[in-house]
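Long-time lurker, first post. I've been practising inverse folding by hand and with some scripts of my own, and I keep getting stuck on stretches where the structure tokens seem ambiguous. Below is the full token string for one chain I'm working on. Before anyone asks, I'm not after the true native sequence, just a reasonable design that respects the backbone. If someone could post their per-position residues I'd love to compare against what I wrote down in my notebook.
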């Protein structure tokens, strides 16, 4: 019997598998389906959206395990689906390792070794294929993903799978689109309507459309609306349309290339063509008055060419020449890493050897007014005019071209063309080309700006945008580009506008221009690695000004102007428009939103760079759209105004969905205070929480967060309309929350796959949060809690509000209830929070959990703030705690954990390993706890801790613990027998 009053996602959600699939998709970087359309910040993985929508549409039955099996089958996350997705062969060496001895004898030669296995000569391809399948099925889920495509690459499930799905769901579907429509008919009486009023880069509308739902999508920012339109109409176009669009791209590029060649601005005397140009700022040293090139690195490229820049002093002109030298030794390369002229944001003068902070060179003025130092402090930089496209000679910072990468085309004896790249310092011909570029741009500058081919708008003040004026003096978006960049991108734009014949061609041209704007500016980094190239502006969520940068020649535009369009034809009905989220008038059965929560990212400011290029063309393509950022209307900030905006938006969405409709709010989990605030916002909006799930994906990315870890734990809050009229009393809530927390944890444990666990401590912690919110929001009102008053208070307040207090109690309930397997409940009760955190962290490691976010959630749950010293590695996806021998005696008795029983047990283990004997371990513990018979009082706890650690001895992925675990087993026995 199917129950459509509840959906699958309300009762269960395989978070582990969805997290792993989401991580795999993120790691594809430019290979992601929508990434090629253009930059947007925080796009949600498509597999996460697909899983969420399926979870919302699927009914529940009396067999939750079967419900889960069907859900996984639909997402190709079951064994059969993973085998369909297998696209790479498992190496022979790994195949050999995963076979039984009998199987090895059957398929491999007798002289095979682990390092060099060889198949028997008579083995056929069909048998090798059979082995691939056999071994693949023995791999863990994580390992299977290494050899598999993403779920979206599977066009359809086999007929046998649809038979099983239809039998369970009482449907007649033969593909995902048909199933989506049939489930919508059963649940809502029509094809499901899915809406997103914070559409951003378009992940949610695109995936909803690809699944067959009708779509409403809006975003305040027209650039986001453009990307969403493109996701549905270009990434969602058919193959014939895609072929025509690619033909259009080639036609525009070839015409632009012919014009550039006729101008002769990229060729030198030998006929080589420049494809990359390196520029740097220069400034005058205030101590010795030499003009110094500001180079944070003298390395041009590693690897095949080993190219560096070398500074040569010109005493007559009091400046420096820059020599470019290829094929230097590795020693010279290392030296070039050290000989920099700017470091720690200070000029390092190679002449007088003095160091001068950049703020001093800019002449920052500390006038006593409280400001954000980095962005708002006044200085003496000249403020650029909107007609400026280069520095003036009198500016504090000037600019020079110091290196060009040329490409020489040669033909070998077989008639094949080969490209050889040369890094050279600019000569007179190159400088002449620079002047020609400036002259060509000057001729076209005003006309191109009028037509919208070049930016012609001021940089508005803001959190991110102030940096551009403060650090460089730029006041107009065109100031972010040098003459060559403006000329090439403007020419592409002009030609594209001339050739475009329909809306899709105009849109794909505009997307290409936006990519050029991002990948070829004075904020574009020069990657000096083994394959040197010009990178994009937005490697993080800000405008990072540079002292040296890379500029693309037209041939290097190929990688940004042409992009792979992953075609997935979409035939759903859709409405897309730029609109304030509070003004939505369309009704949806399901609202899925990823709101801009509390200034995490200043989308409205960052996207203004693209809008500066897009304004005229957007008005041309979509006359009914506006073309400014509507920055003043953006949901931003914190505190009362932010909360009121959010309540207004979600109250409106609640009105715009049926009584059996559902909302999903995605946000990045931060702390209890934020959870409490969000709970009150949603509660005030007439919504109640029915479940919550945490999808953890993370990648390493420099410069985004402390330690280089960009942690992304996306919480899915599942919400229904609030229909209760009941009023609760605070004193009865704790009992109900405790019961709900324990029920939720028990339910998750019963559903979990013991062989391939879905849930970690982070998920159980989230279950506690959700359980408390579920109980709280089930009531219309709670006696003694004034929600509006609590929302009016500053989030920075140290005062714990009543909702926050209840959530914290729920967390404590969860962690008192979650006793590690094999640990006595009385011992667990007496352990310090830091000890519990360490033990729970080791349990995560036992379960192959290495995400930073999982350990951060643990720390929050136990209220442990100082934990970094406990870790041997704290990098994304490779986190692990120190072993006893790695810890040694560092930090003993220095802090709470250092003084704990757990820490002293680890020291005793270290003593055992060092001495290869348990005597030293027991002696250490007795010496430490010899007063008042403490040793004997703590003996049972010591044995519990040692017994827990001894379990690591035979865990294959915890070999670093093997020796310590061996001695833990011996020491546990010695302590048990001590005194007998």
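-- Answer (accepted) --
I ran through it position by position. Result:
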């Amino acid at each position: 019997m199917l129950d459509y009053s509840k959906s699958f996602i309300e009762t269960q959600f395989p978070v582990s598998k969805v997290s792993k699939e989401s991580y795999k998709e993120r790691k594809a970087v430019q290979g992601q389906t929508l990434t090629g359309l253009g930059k947007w910040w925080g796009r949600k993985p498509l597999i996460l959206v697909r899983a969420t929508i399926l979870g919302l549409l699927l009914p529940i039955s009396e067999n939750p395990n079967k419900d889960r099996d069907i859900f996984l089958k639909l997402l190709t996350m079951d064994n059969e689906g993973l085998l369909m997705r297998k696209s790479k062969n498992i190496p022979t060496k790994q195949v050999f390792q995963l076979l039984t001895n009998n199987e090895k004898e059957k398929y491999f030669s007798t002289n095979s070794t682990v390092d060099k296995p060889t198949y028997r000569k008579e083995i056929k391809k069909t048998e090798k294929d059979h082995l691939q399948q056999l071994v693949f099925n023995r791999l863990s889920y994580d390992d299977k993903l290494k050899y598999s495509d993403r779920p979206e690459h599977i066009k359809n499930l086999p007929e046998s799978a649809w038979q099983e799905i239809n039998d369970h769901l009482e449907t007649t579907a033969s593909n995902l689109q048909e199933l989506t429509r049939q489930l919508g008919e059963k649940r809502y009486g029509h094809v499901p309507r899915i809406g997103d009023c914070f559409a951003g880069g378009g992940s949610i509308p695109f995936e909803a459309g690809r699944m067959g739902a009708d779509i409403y999508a809006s975003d305040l920012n027209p650039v986001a609306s453009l990307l969403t339109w493109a996701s549905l109409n270009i990434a969602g176009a058919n193959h014939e349309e895609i072929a025509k669009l690619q033909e259009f791209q080639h036609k525009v590029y070839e015409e632009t290339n012919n014009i550039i060649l006729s101008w002769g601005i990229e060729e030198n005397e030998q006929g080589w063509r420049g494809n990359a140009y390196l520029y740097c700022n220069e400034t005058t040293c205030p101590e010795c008055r030499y003009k110094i090139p500001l180079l944070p690195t003298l390395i041009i490229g590693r690897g095949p060419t080993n190219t560096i820049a070398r500074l040569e002093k010109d005493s007559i002109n009091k400046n420096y020449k820059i020599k470019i030298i290829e094929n230097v030794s590795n020693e010279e390369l290392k030296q070039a890493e050290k000989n920099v002229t700017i470091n720690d944001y200070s000029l390092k003068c190679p002449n007088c050897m003095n160091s001068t902070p950049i703020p001093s060179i800019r002449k920052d003025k500390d006038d006593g007014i409280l400001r954000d130092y980095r962005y708002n402090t006044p200085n003496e930089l000249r403020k650029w005019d909107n007609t400026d496209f280069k520095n003036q000679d009198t500016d504090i910072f000037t600019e020079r071209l110091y290196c060009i990468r040329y490409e020489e085309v040669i033909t070998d004896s077989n008639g094949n063309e080969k490209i050889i790249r040369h890094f050279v310092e600019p000569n007179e011909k190159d400088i002449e080309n620079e002047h020609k570029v400036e002259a060509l741009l000057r001729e076209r500058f005003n006309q191109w700006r009028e037509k919208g081919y070049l930016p012609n708008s001021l940089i508005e003040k803001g959190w991110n945008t102030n940096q551009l004026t403060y650090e460089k003096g730029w006041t107009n978006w065109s100031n972010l580009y040098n003459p060559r960049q403006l000329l090439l991108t403007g020419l592409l734009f002009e030609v594209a506008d001339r050739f475009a014949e329909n809306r899709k061609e105009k849109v794909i041209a505009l997307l290409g221009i936006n990519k050029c704007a991002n990948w070829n500016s004075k904020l574009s980094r020069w990657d000096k690695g083994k394959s040197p190239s010009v990178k994009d502006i937005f490697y993080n969520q800000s405008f990072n000004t540079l002292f040296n940068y890379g500029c693309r020649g037209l041939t290097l535009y190929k990688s940004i102007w042409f992009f792979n369009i992953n075609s997935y034809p979409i035939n759903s009905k859709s409405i897309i428009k730029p609109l304030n989220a509070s003004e939505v008038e369309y009704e949806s059965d399901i609202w899925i939103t990823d709101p801009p929560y509390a200034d995490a990212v200043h989308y409205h400011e960052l996207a203004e760079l693209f809008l500066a290029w897009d304004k005229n063309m957007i008005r041309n393509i979509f006359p009914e759209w506006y073309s400014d950022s509507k920055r003043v209307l953006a949901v931003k900030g914190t505190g009362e105004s932010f909360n009121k905006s959010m309540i207004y938006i979600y109250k409106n969405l609640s009105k715009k969905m049926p009584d059996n409709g559902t909302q999903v709010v995605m946000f990045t989990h931060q702390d209890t205070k934020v959870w409490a605030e969000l709970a009150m916002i949603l509660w005030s909006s007439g919504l109640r929480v029915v479940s919550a799930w945490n999808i953890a994906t993370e990648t390493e990315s420099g410069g985004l967060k402390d330690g280089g870890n960009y942690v992304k734990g996306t919480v899915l809050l599942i919400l229904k309309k609030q229909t209760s009229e009941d009023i609760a009393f605070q004193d009865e809530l704790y009992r109900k929350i405790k019961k709900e927390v324990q029920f939720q944890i028990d339910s998750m444990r019963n559903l979990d796959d013991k062989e391939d666990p879905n849930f970690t401590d982070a998920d159980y912690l989230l279950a506690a949060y959700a359980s408390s919110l579920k109980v709280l929001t089930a009531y219309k009102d709670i006696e003694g809690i004034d929600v509006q008053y609590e929302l009016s208070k500053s989030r920075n307040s140290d005062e714990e509000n009543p909702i926050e207090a209840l959530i914290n109690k729920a967390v404590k309930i969860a962690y008192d209830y979650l006793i590690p397997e094999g640990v006595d409940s009385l011992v667990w009760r007496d352990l310090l929070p830091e000890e519990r955190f360490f033990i729970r962290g080791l349990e995560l490691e036992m379960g192959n959990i290495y995400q930073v976010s999982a350990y951060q959630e643990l720390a929050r749950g136990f209220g442990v703030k100082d934990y970094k010293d406990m870790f041997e590695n704290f990098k994304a996806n490779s986190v692990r705690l120190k072993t006893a021998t790695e810890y040694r005696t560092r930090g003993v008795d220095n802090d709470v954990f250092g003084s704990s029983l757990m820490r002293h047990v680890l020291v005793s283990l270290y003593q055992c390993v060092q001495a290869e004997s348990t005597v030293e371990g027991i002696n250490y513990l007795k010496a430490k706890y010899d007063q008042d018979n403490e040793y004997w009082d703590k003996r049972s706890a010591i044995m519990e801790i040692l017994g827990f650690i001894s379990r690591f001895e035979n865990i294959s992925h915890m070999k670093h613990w093997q020796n310590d675990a061996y001695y833990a087993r011996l020491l546990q026995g010695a302590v048990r027998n001590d005194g007998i």
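A couple of notes from the structure itself: The chain has 38 helices and 26 strands. The first strand starts at residue 3 and ends at 7. Happy to go over any region you disagree with.
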